Amino acid sequence: MSTEFSDAALQEADAAIKATEAYEPSKGEKRLNAVGNAVSNASGNSLVSIAQSDAATQALSFVKDQVGNFVQHSKVLMNVLDELGKAHPFIQIAVSIFKAGLTLELTRRENDDKVIALNLTMCDMMQTLTLLKQVVNMKEPGPGGLSIEDRLKQRLGSIIDSIKRCAKVCDSYQKRPTAVKFFTSTKWQGKFTQVAQQFADHKAGIQFDLQIHASVGITTANVTLTAMSTSFTELNENVSKLMEVVFERMRTPEERDLSAFVAKEAGGIDAVLKNDKLLEEVLAKRKFGSGKDVDEKGTKKRVVPGQTPDAVLTVTELRKEVNKDVEQVLADNKVFDQKFEAMKMQVDEVKVEIRHESDRVIDTILAGPHERIVDRDLYHVWKEMGWKGSVKAKHLVMALRDHFAEGSHAALAAIRVITQLKKDGSDPASAAQAMEEIADIANRTDPHASPEDEWALQFISVLRIQPLIEALDDDVSSFVTIAEANAFTAARPQKWSLPHWIAYWTYGFEMTVQWYFRRIRKVISEIAWATVQALPANRKIIADFISSWHVRWIEDFLSGLRDVEQWDNTDWESDGMFLKFKDYVVENERKFEHNLRGVKYYLDEANTLSIVAGDGRPEKYVMPLIFILLRRSLYIVQQAHTVTLHERELMVIQDSILTLTGAISDRVRTLQAVHKLQNLDDKEQMKRFFFGLYSFAFEEPEMSDYWKRDPEVDVNMVNDVPPALASDGDSQQGDLPLFYEPTTEDIDLIPDPTFDDPTSPHPTAAHSLVGHWSGSYAYDDRDGDGLVSFTVSSHGVTGAIAGSGTDAFGPYVVHGTLNDDRLTFVKEYLRLQYGQKVMWRYEGVVAPDSDEIRGQWGPTDVDWQFVVSGEEPEQETGAEEQAIGDVPAQQPEAEEITTPAAEVPEIRVDKAEDAQPDGDAMNANEDHDDDGSSDAGSSFSGITVGFTHGTFFLMRRPVEYLLSCPPDEEFAANRPRALWKLALNAALRAVQGRTLNWGQLSARRKKRQQYIELLKRRHREPWRGQDVEEAQEWAQLIKEIHPDDLHLWRCIAMYQERRDVIQDIICDACKEYPMTPRFTCVNCSEDEVNHTVDLCIKCFSANRHVTRGKKVHHPTHNVVQYRNTKWRVYRHATFDIGRRMLQWAEDQLQLSQARSAVQTTAGDTADSSGLHCVVCKTSITAPPYWCCLSCMEDSVVCYACNERIEREKEWLYLRGPFAPSGAGPHNWFHTLISAPGPEVITAETDQEKAVTMEERIARVEAKLDATNLKLDASNLKLDARLAALEDLLRAVLAR
């Protein structure tokens, strides 16, 4: 190979050397070099932690400076890369992906500094690409025959993957609750380090690709690469140390508070995670979101956990989230891909469109601030008024009004005068001057203005300036800047003139809000009607959605809109004025709908909302988004007619509404701060701003016409979908599937029995585990879910085992390995949970006689250890780091990690099994183990390294043995008697299994009902926990039920839970919460929005009196019964219908009585007219009775039939659509209003009801005291008489 070089190459090399020698680094580069050297030196010293060293302080100072300027620097970098992409199109894809990922963080409402630090490493890598602008020829081949373009194209694929990975990591991390981020900081630090290292590697690769081309004409780039020191050149060489500094020293205030709290506890993070009380304190320190966490009456309630960081966590949920692996969290963030793609599309579509209103050229910016105004009319107004960089919003609006309302008439008058002078042939010089004036007037005239815009001038008036001020003054500062003015004019449709645009904001915007108000109300009405046809399995899901505070917030929000009645007569399809704006409104809605479809209608956080609706005031998009989200809800409810919905399907809409309320909350707080600074009445200002819609967004709603307005009034005022949308594919939601796949109910998944009879003999070899086993598992703080049946079918010579069994959650298979006496196996349920396999890992010790297995169990995806007493746990690498910011395995609910709760056991360890028994108890257990007694209550002597989920025990006996075995206490007290009882119980169970009688069926039915009710109560209120009596009842009950029955009954409970609507309300009499059905007093609630008077069925049946404030509920009041959840906007309309029905029923009774009196006088037979129960057809001659408010025909129901319906609860067993109750059209879910019977009231009882409970108790105590005094007096008299009699007897005996 020749070593000779051409003269040109030698000259180029010589120039490069000289340029390198002449290079002088800047001050900033010198500082960066010093920081990098300091970090490198610190990393080489193993005795000094970087988080505590001086180098860390320097690095932290630099990183904080970069974080502080992140927004400004990143926007500059994106602009530079845009220009670079035009010159080198092959990098445009990577630039678009980079901009999409970076924009997701820039549009987030709040950003974690740690996330910004990670994005800085990405920016540093992308900044290296800017060196391409110095490359002479991108396509010229280099060493190996590859050009720079070819080399970089090979790298771009992995660079794009890393950018997407970084964006997903940041997005997932930001969504984690604060407590979870704190306890899992070490896991996330590792993931951040991994991503940052990828960027460092990519940067080094890009530099290498550029450097090897130094001999082919890129001398300048080579010189720069040799000498430069970019933002993280040295820091990236120590990525792990950099991220250690970031995670240790850049914690949020909340994380620092948690760190200080944990530091006070002995044992650190491990101790805190194992202590429920400490975790409750941790959760109490968290900040709650903007959503309301109260029920309708303002009572504080638990908010259902969603995907947002502000969701309310329970202790169990916190442990579950902490336990998740980072990769699992990333996999769960399924919505990110759609969100990222939507952001990328927006980035690609963004183009700066500046309308050139004329050919005027601005020679210099020094001519004045007005030269930066783009719009011609606004330009002249700003120039004539002599305004600087900003102006009072009111002054600008008034100037625009004068400009359009008066300026046009003045211009016409001037042109008319000038034209007349030209006709008269006056002085030519004056005529020439006049022509210049005409030209100036012409230049000042908007070329888009036309006689067609004359209509708009009437709306540019003083009376309508408030909406225009709100549109111009985007930041509510009372001043309009040049940037805000340009943004206002740039947003107008291309074919609209400025007067048209102003008219939209002064008049058309209010029309738009009123139009959406009616469309939203119509969708609410359609959802209410569609709910009736939903499958019973979807009943609770839909009811929970309607009663959620997310939906109640929408109702509160809409109730603030003013002047609703003034627009009732508007024909929204043909109104000429609205048609001038409708195309723009419909096009905006189409864009919102298109963007929402891109993210599957899931607004998981603020940056997703920004992707969908853009930046700017929420007033621009809140009404369209509410309408679109509710219309999506209607589609889901309609799908519920034919498929079984996933329990979280409508929660996606709730989470989206939650994100929307967050934006509204920020806006309202800004307005409140401005009002406070300006010393204005906030309540009055809210009534004026945005047509009053913010009045009750986060305030207690007041009774108004909104709540008394019948939603059916709005149904016929507007069409469901505008014509422009009806033909658009985006408006048709049928092609967009549900967010989750439809599910199958548990009871339909019960397989046919496939296991051997556990009582049959099964041959076993010595030390083989083949055979039947039974036992149980336990939780951390309560008993487990019952007994388990387990059969080992094979045990190979290598120790591999396989088998199957069943427990409360259904059949399962096991596979594992026995190594000496240590058994490890995986338990995998055959029944899918939301399409996912549910698996758990069991580790235990087999007893020497191979008749017993004891150990602990936990998740399969967490590295936890099981250690027997006396063994030392293996020291894990990085234990010290874990103690600082991470935790060991958590304690989630017993389900597949990717599935919601309540389907599989919650992972806890029973306290009884954790406690070490005393010596006597231990000996007693050891003694009667050989006799075959139960060890259900004994404890395992092993210890656990880290945090696992619970304990278990198995013994080589059929499950019937455990069902027949007496408690351990009986064996300890009298072993022979306990063994005799065991034999008797087993014989009795065998006999009962072969016979059938009513007593057995009745006992079994009672036990099933008891189990189902307790289980539903545990699911309904998991955060409240169980009281002692309930826990004891549950513990005793599950020991008496066969695993097959447990599974069947559990499926029945889940079946009923999906059908039973639980009213999210508190009984005002007994304070029961929640309750079903709901009884609302009409007399006490007609003037209330939220504070209605409600009773549970027990208190209503008992005719309880309720006193609340000045209102006293009597049993004689009319009460509405709800078995379904109703929209609050229907409440007062229901009351009105109820009053009319009661009047109708009363008239029918009076008419029937009058006819009966006439027929009796005439001697005729009474006819069949009058009131008859629609269910049993019994004649009703007087109250009490119920009037149905839902039947097509007027009908009544007797109290006896309604009580029977409530007892039977037929809705809990329906599979198809709602079936009628009885022969008539009346259904059990219809709303009823009571016509109570007269209450017998005497003066004494009336006075008794008027006093308080304390006074009643005091009266009873007084009566008891008086009675005791009388008894004492009687006793004294009796004692005296007995003494006299005794004296008399003594006297007689003395004779």
TrEMBL record:
<keyword id="KW-0175">Coiled coil</keyword>
<dbReference type="InterPro" id="IPR043145">
    <property type="entry name" value="Znf_ZZ_sf"/>
</dbReference>
<feature type="compositionally biased region" description="Basic and acidic residues">
    <location>
        <begin position="905"/>
        <end position="914"/>
    </location>
</feature>
<protein>
    <recommendedName>
        <fullName>ZZ-type domain-containing protein</fullName>
    </recommendedName>
</protein>
<keyword id="KW-0479">Metal-binding</keyword>
<keyword id="KW-0863">Zinc-finger</keyword>
<dbReference type="GO" id="GO:0008270">
    <property type="term" value="F:zinc ion binding"/>
</dbReference>
<keyword id="KW-0862">Zinc</keyword>
<feature type="region of interest" description="Disordered">
    <location>
        <begin position="871"/>
        <end position="937"/>
    </location>
</feature>
<feature type="coiled-coil region">
    <location>
        <begin position="1243"/>
        <end position="1270"/>
    </location>
</feature>
